[in-house]
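Hi F.,

I've been meaning to write this up properly since the lab meeting, where we talked about keeping a consistent format for the predictions we share between groups. The idea is simple: the sequence comes first, exactly as it goes in, then the structure tokens exactly as they come out, then a line or two of notes. No screenshots and no reformatting. I'm using this chain as the first example so we have something concrete to point to.
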Amino acid sequence: MRTPYYYFDLAGTSRDPAVLRELAGSEYPFVRQAVAANPCTRADALFALATRCRDVPAEHGPWNDNALLLLLAGHPAADRPALLVVLDAAAARLTAAARPYAAVLALAGRPELRPAELLPLGRLPGASARLRGGLRRALADRLDGG
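Output, unedited:
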């Protein structure tokens, strides 16, 4: 019988896109986070993970889902469709006061997303003054080429 640790280890070490795609549907949040942290995970599996994050309240608590959003926002293989789902999930979490601040700031550094798509996050009810300032700075850095 395979244990949850087996799937966690496989998610972190596999280079097989089919295996990673299957593990993206795992019931265990730590396995999904390991898939999102794996540099070999492709955009389709990242999209599947992001889609699962859109549900509020958080499936396994806000910390787990916010950690997953951050991993997805920073993953080099995350394409525009996956990042748009992460953006939508982050907006839903901000509105629900779940504080996905790190994911929002990571999204602000992604050239696949336009500043006009990111600025509204700072106006949502759960956005803190610190998040708004960080968002403005991150977007200004992008405009300055930094």
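Notes:
Residues 39 and 76 are 7 Å apart (CA to CA).
The chain has one domain: 4-143.

If this format works for you, I'll send the rest the same way.

G.
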